[in-house]
């Protein structure tokens, strides 16, 4: 077998640029092996002996479009499940839909438009439909449009079929499984009443016009776990397009690990328990840069201590090759959203070496991502014990307290982080996350303290 590493840096760049331009998908150092493996497989499948020949076929041949479809099916992760990030479905059914229903009740069309952008196998769009059916008893008397779009035609076909596995049921309450599915031999077929509420269409968020029925004047857009694969420019354009598509007062819901951090936008950020959502209000403030609510694992992992950070009182043992490997594997798992597996690996690392502050930090981050706030809190405290100079651990604790509605404790932790950052050069990387500087973290703490004070006063 040919070694997939034989893909030269120049050739890799060609594919990388082509994919960003065509699909927005960006493969960097942390996840380039997914692309490398897929390219190798597709190059062999098409019978080409070199990557350049395969590239020319993909890019210039009449059948290149068709091949792109196969490549996309291989490189897009369609990971999804029903009621994923259930905190957002609580907001949908308890807050957004009731508000929308009140607002539209007496309008002539009584229309509700919701778009699941990057819908994968339809679980998200159908979860929205179920949420709506549960909230609006006379939904049949309304003009309901729930649109699911994706760039991968294979997942769209599966969405239309709507037959799911036990794993797909995700966070769906058991009563809804019984109510909305017919189960036979471990396969769950969605009932027609739900299917009929949703329409699926092919759409490329990074290249196509935003003109499909159900996109313009949308009330709510879900685009979750899609922009994590895009670079900054693609995300910036997309968020701008979503803003244009939404009707006045409309909402944008992003994934748990996505924010509008470092994106110029005019959305209002609203905090709900365990989640943030964004609202279009034309009269809102000037375009703003949002503050990342939670700073997590870098996509690449640097051995500690990071350059420019002060030595910790408890000296961490030297980084062994095995430990660095484990840490890289954990980063790969996190990027693939395999948080449970990442947690197992990191917990084993922490158990083996309880003084490993970096692994403890990452484990805390992963626990936060899977909603185990109490455990995340305990672990961030442990990080502070091991590395008392970690402003980032204090900052993340502050965010956990915001999520748990404890503004007084949150303010205390942001204050602690600010004290640690005092006198630090603004362009110095913060410990545990080279991508963030002291200057940025200071700004983020000040932003949070400002809004906490505004809320209190
Ligand atoms: C991880 S899934 C997320 C599914 C669902 N939103 C959820 O959170 O459960 C990401 C989806 O985005 C789709 N996607 C990636 N790039 C896209 C693009 N440029 N346009 C439309 N969909 C895209 C992928 O095909 C994949 O189905």
How would you summarize the topology of this molecule?
Layout: H1 9-23, H2 32-45, H3 51-60, H4 64-75, H5 86-104, E1 111-117, H6 123-135, E2 143-150, H7 153-161, E3 163-164, H8 174-180, E4 181-184, E5 187-190, H9 192-195, E6 198-202, E7 218-223, H10 232-245, E8 246-254, E9 264-265, E10 267-272, E11 275-280, E12 288-289, H11 321-335, H12 339-352, H13 357-369, H14 373-386, H15 391-403, H16 407-421, E13 429-430, E14 433-437, H17 438-456
Parallel strand pairs: 1-2, 1-7, 2-6, 7-8
Antiparallel strand pairs: 3-5, 4-5, 8-11, 9-12, 10-11, 13-14
The protein binds S-adenosylmethionine (SAM).
- The name CATH uses for the topology of the largest domain is Rossmann fold
Placed side by side, the strands forming the largest sheet appear as: 6-2-1-7-8-11-10
Helix fraction? 40-55%
Largest sheet properties: 7 strands, mixed
Number of helices: 17
Beta strands, count: 14
Distance between the termini: 67 Å
The Cα radius of gyration reads: 23 Å
Structural class category: alpha/beta
Strand proportion = 5-15%
Mean pLDDT: 86
Number of domains: 3
The CATH homologous superfamily name of the largest domain equals Vaccinia Virus protein VP39
Task: Explain what you see.
By secondary structure, the protein is α/β, with parallel strands linked by helices. It has 3 domains: 4-75, no CATH class; 86-289, Vaccinia Virus protein VP39 (Rossmann fold, 3-Layer(aba) Sandwich); 321-456, Serine Threonine Protein Phosphatase 5, Tetratricopeptide repeat. It is built from 17 helices and 14 strands. It has helices at 9-23, 32-45, 51-60, 64-75, 86-104, 123-135, 153-161, 174-180, 192-195, 232-245, 321-335, 339-352, 357-369, 373-386, 391-403, 407-421, 438-456, and strands at residues 111-117, 143-150, 163-164, 181-184, 187-190, 198-202, 218-223, 246-254, 264-265, 267-272, 275-280, 288-289, 429-430, 433-437. The strands form 4 sheets. A 7-stranded mixed β-sheet has the order 6-2-1-7-8-11-10. Mean pLDDT is 86; it is low at 285-289 and 299-321. The structure holds S-adenosylmethionine. S-adenosylmethionine binds at residues 23-25, 76-80, 84, 118-120, 123-124, 150-152, 155, 204-206, 224-226, 229, 255.
